Amino acid sequence: MTAPHDLPSVVPVDAATTAAPATTGGKPNDLAEAAGLPVGAGQIKATYDPRLTNEDLAPLAKQTWSSYNIFAFWMSDVHSVGGYVTAGSLFALGIASWQVLVALVVGIVIVQVFCNLVAKPSQKTGVPYPVINRAVFGVLGANIPAIIRGLIAVAWYGVQTFLAAEALNIIFLKFVPGAEGLLDPSFLGLNALGWISYAILWVAQAALFWNGMETIRRFIDWAGPAVYVVMIALAVYLVSEAGWQNISLNLSTGPPMTFAASIPVMFSAIALVVSYFAGPMLNFGDFSRYGRSFAAVKKGNLLGLPINFLFFSLLTVVCASATVPVFGELMTDPIKTVKAIDTPFAILLGGLTFVTATVGINIVANFISPAFDFSNVSPQRISWRTGGMIAAVGSVLLTPWNWYNNDEAIHYTLGVLGALIGPLFGILIAGYYVIGRQRVHVDDMFTMAPTGRYWYTRGYNRNAVATVIGSGLVAVATAVLPKLAASLDLFDVTWIASYSWFIGCGLGFAMFVFLERRNPQIPTLDASDPHVSDGTRNEPVVVSHHAEPTGS
Fold first, then answer.
1. What is the 3 state secondary structure string of 449-515?
2. Are 372 and 57 in contact (CB under 8 A)?
3. Which residue did the predictor score with more confidence, 2 or 431?
4. What is the DSSP string of 383-446?
5. Chain centre to alpha carbon of residue 462
6. Within 10 A of 183 (CB to CB), how many other CB atoms are there?
7. What percentage of the chain exceeds 70 in pLDDT?
8. Is pLDDT larger for residue 163 or for residue 374?
9. For range 420-432, the mean pLDDT
10. CA-wise closest residue to 509 among 549, 474, 484
11. How far is CA 75 from CA 260, 302, 312, in A?
């Protein structure tokens, strides 16, 4: 495959590479469009090593996503069964409603700030998360965070597909005669109806993914608002049945807490919000790279996180609160709520809506990212599509329905992997902003030459590797050991586990900065070098240059 010659492109002053990041006016993308380059395709230089390069990992030729596309991304991430249950659980913690709202605001603003931080390096360079990590971990060391993140996503991809299948089961049981006969017996822990629903959604998600990022973008642009329409309709129906005077923002059934006792619970609620978004926060560079400008990404984050999440949370608690007078019990699971309404139209519409919502979050949070991660391991053998299918197949082999309801399995498997998200986040932020000063030599992220700036020691930055091990062990210990100690009646400090992400992130950040100050590995780059992306500069300029033929 070869690239067209004499290709006009737009290169920002801060990223003079073969990538052509767009401006908010769209003119650079018009030039790339005229060259016939598809959205999502990267431009590959002849100097790029094939062992580190394919079209999916190379700097983007076009960055076209608007602030609405980023907003829709967050709608797809928030509007899910998991998001509904999480929001409802915050209002049931026993603290006052105003305290819950304060915790929601503080938590989601923290998420917004962190997402902006992780978005910038990928948006400025046009590369996904595993590639930008090459500047920090080394061109080979970047596979360490990629594999960790990929394994977490595969596990949760299976869980989310299973949850969507549960919603689909309700539709089958309501509209397909004889579907009850498929509930028994089971194979590998899942009954025949469950296998049918799981297979349908597995194929549907794979087909959506296989059609590429533009198809996925169009899907999430539609899916998020569609869920809102149904959620608002559900809230209107439930409130009309319950009466507005019977709606309460306090879902707690226990005795009220004193103000002093409520403060630790507020902090736990904040930590819960941040932890819920920990995966998408780390993954966000895979999507921000498509943003037409960093300003557009920040605006999309503002709309999609504080504003969208707060509105969805209030909508959730209104629906959950109304289930008490309407059905006689508190329901924080929207699938059970729809099932309890027990009218064909409601079950069909509600079931399909929450299937769509769960597929949306699964695609953006758990499918696209491992596709990049696994492709990064062996770019010439594993394309983005192949990497995604590896994740999809792996999710079935894990049989998530067998361990999803097993607290011990989740705690000691995903708890270990999930605790590592914090250190990985802290290391990336420290490496890009503090040590690297927002400067990245884009071309050197694609070379295996020992003279490359990111070759370090045989392709690994030993400071980054040491930090992952050191801070990772502490983070895992805070996530896993408190529960073990409590189960053995030794002592009870299980509250620490709620803050494992913060502990891992802070320790990873501090330890990496310390090691880099003591024994520098990340190079100091000259901002005037035309091959260096400098995130502190924003003004783009139009240049014309010759695109190199690709090496594959």
1. CCCCCCCCECCECHHHHHHHHHHHHHHHHHHHHHHHHHHCCCCCCHHHHHHHHHHHHHHHHHHHHHH
2. yes
3. 431
4. -HHHHHHHHHHHHHHT-HHHHTT-HHHIIIIIHHHHHTHHHHHHHHHIIIIIISTTEEETGGGG
5. 27
6. 13
7. 88
8. 374
9. 95
10. 474
11. 35, 12, 9
Cα gap 139→381, rounded to integer Å? 17
Instruction: State the chain's mean pLDDT as an integer.
Output: 84
**Where is 9: in which H helix or E strand?**
strand 8-12
Q: Which residue has the tokens 């071309």?
A: 443
Q: 345: pLDDT confidence band, cut at 50, 70 and 90?
A: confident
Question: Over the stretch 502-545, which tens digit does the pLDDT of each residue have?
Answer: 999 999 999 999 999 999 999 999 988 999 999 988 644 333 33
pLDDT average, residue stretch 196-205: 93
Please tell me the distance from the alpha carbon of residue 20 to that of residue 50, in angstroms, as a whole number: 21
C-alpha 376/C-alpha 98 separation (Å) is 45
pTM above 0.90, yes or no: no
Q: Which uninterrupted H or E stretch holds 199? A: helix 192-210
Measured CA to CA in angstroms, residue 193 lies from 13, 116, 190, 393, 398 at distances of 56, 42, 8, 20, 19
Smallest CA-to-CA distance from 479 within 277, 266, 271 is with: 271
CA atoms within 13 A on the CB side of 435: 27
pLDDT value of residue 37: 46
Category of 94 on φ-ψ map: left (φ > 0), alpha (ψ -120 to 50) or beta: left
| DSSP per position, 56-70 | TTSPBS---B-HHHH
Peptide bond into 549 cis (omega under 30): no
Q: Which residue has the higher pLDDT, 185 or 327?
A: 327
Residue type, 83: G
CA distance 251 to 241: 18
